Amino acid sequence: MIIVMQVAASESQIRGVREVIETRSLKALVMPGGERVAIGIPSAIPPEERESLAGQLGALPGVAHVTHVTRPYKLASREFHSADTVVEIGDVRIGGNEVQVMAGPCAVESREQIQASARAVRAAGARVLRGGAFKPRTSPYAFQGLQEEGLELLHDAAREAGLLTVSEVMQPDLVGLVATYVDVLQIGARNMQNYPLLIEAGRSGKPILLKRGPSASLDEFLLAAEYVLHNGNPNVMLCERGVHPLDRAYVRNTLDLNAVPVLKELTHLPVVVDPSHGIGVRRHVPAMAAAAVAAGADALIVEMHPDPARALSDGPQSLSPDELSDLMARLRPLGEAVGRTLHDPAR
Ligand code: PEP
Ligand code: MN
Prior knowledge:
TIM Barrel, 11 helices
């Protein structure tokens, strides 16, 4: 439920609304807006109390109107918060007019590899360096990542190149450690419904890149985001990264681009697309990156490796440095055609 106050509502009238909500043991969330204040009740209201509460609140002085939030997720819903959320990380804004690109290797492998990646990412015009240090690998025999050493290498390479960082955290007790090294915490597709991890991500206060589970519906995805929001962290970015494919013979996943306009309508949170895991085939990544920008994505996260043939993970879907530069050069006019800009290092 949302209580929208009149433009001239006073502090004591806002307090009056909060008191009525809190005496029913419900949480009141005061949201200052440009012109007027809205007060949200993010928790579920017992159905038998809904009408009487709405009536009581609607009659209070200073209240303009009361609306019900019909979606199962509340804080993530556009009904609750109509303006786009812009996640600000340093001087990079995700969810505004500029389409941001995060790029880098699937995994941090060595100092030389991540430094070369950072230089290439910077030269291409991307602002955020990705690099996994804790890797969720399907096989326990596959490279598991350099762990804390990888985070340190990622951090150092990014700072030398003037980039921000994103890296995955897989378990709740490591959220604090990963958060000391990176600017954005990634929650991987396999962990989208790891609720203890989502709760810790909420408490961390760091921007979160939440990836959609390969079989998750959009409601399940938004409810996962709701866990992070509900635990005090408003800076959540939703990442579509492909769902289970019908045709594994040709692609790794099916990038669900339907999700982009549908999510933009359902939620105010920024929408990020990962074309690399989304299709899983290097030569097809640029087409899906372009399609994502055309569909309205706020950011892309793209795998790039200085030497994809030697990558320890996800080489077959990783672009080379030149391919990343070419892609970004092609995305700029495309972005312009749909009313967006992309950072250009030459300007
Ligand atoms: C990754 O970003 O390298 C990764 C493992 O992604 P996902 O969780 O989407 O599979
Ligand atoms: Mn990967």
